[in-house]
From TrEMBL:
Tree of life domain: Bacteria
Entry protein name: Aspartate/glutamate racemase family protein
MF (Gene Ontology): amino-acid racemase activity
PANTHER family: ASPARTATE-GLUTAMATE RACEMASE FAMILY, GLUTAMATE RACEMASE
UniProt record similarity statement: Belongs to the aspartate/glutamate racemases family.
Database matches in Pfam families: Asp_Glu_race (PF01177)
Gene3D superfamilies: 3.40.50.1860
Keyword annotations of the record: Isomerase
């Protein structure tokens, strides 16, 4: 049985998309051995165009762009779709409704792993859109019964700024790692038993040693779940 073809919607940012590609291929090689690698297609956006739509609140146009990307992957032979970003799961339901392929939602493998660890109260770091809107927190609460804490307003602004001014530009600053460590500590003080790295670039900055509680890296968990789907039946 051949691997299923993974359709990756990336470029938001390319730094995290490169991590998806690396993790997916390393995981396939580890599981299948030898020279094996993943069968995948990648549609990569110009993130400057997407970021402008995000900041202007032009979500309908962003949704249309993601739907078109998913349809391109479907026409190209993808057998399921992965959106390589947390924030753009804001339109995941609309994308799923517009295509004939399954969409592997980033929140699901993350929540499943958290529940398997016996954790119920989690802190969430991500863009302001992910932390403040309900499309992500609501799914974690409604489908998985998780109690989701987000940082206070000043801390949310700091987390968002580092993502857009540094991480998506390829900058990893020690001062920002210290700032994130302090923000994580404050979430733990409020009762967080674990922290979700709910932006696919945060894993470039934050490491397990930066947190007194377990970290759940959505990039790695999503990529590994994509391999599970691609290799199902092997």
């Amino acid at each position: 049985m051949q691997q299923k073809v993974i359709g990756l919607i990336g470029g938001m940012s390319w730094e995290s998309s490169a991590e998806y590609y690396r993790i997916i291929n390393e995981t396939v090689r580890a599981r299948l051995g030898g020279l094996r690698s993943a069968r995948c297609l990648l549609w990569s956006f110009d993130f400057g165009e997407i970021e402008a739509l995000q900041q202007a609140g032009r979500w309908d146009e962003a949704t249309a762009a993601l739907i078109e990307a998913a349809r391109r992957l479907e026409r190209g032979g993808a057998e399921f779709v992965v959106i390589c970003t947390n924030t753009m799961h804001r339109m995941a339901d609309a994308v799923q409704a517009a295509i004939g392929l399954p969409l592997l939602h980033i929140a699901d493998p993350t929540a499943e792993r958290i529940r398997a660890a016996g954790i119920r109260r989690v802190g969430l770091l991500g863009t302001a859109f992910t932390m403040e809107q309900d499309f992500y927190k609501g799914r974690l609460a409604a489908r998985y019964g998780l109690d989701v804490l987000v940082p206070e307003a000043d801390d949310r602004a700091a987390v968002h700024r580092v993502i857009y001014e540094e991480l998506v530009r390829g900058r990893v600053e020690p001062a920002s790692r210290e700032a994130y460590r302090a923000i994580i500590a404050r979430l733990v003080e409020r009762g967080a038993e674990a922290i979700i790295l709910g932006c696919t670039e945060i894993m470039l900055l934050v490491r397990p040693e930066d947190s007194p509680v377990p970290l759940f890296d959505t990039t790695a968990l999503h990529a590994e779940a994509a391999v599970d789907r691609a290799l199902a039946g092997h």
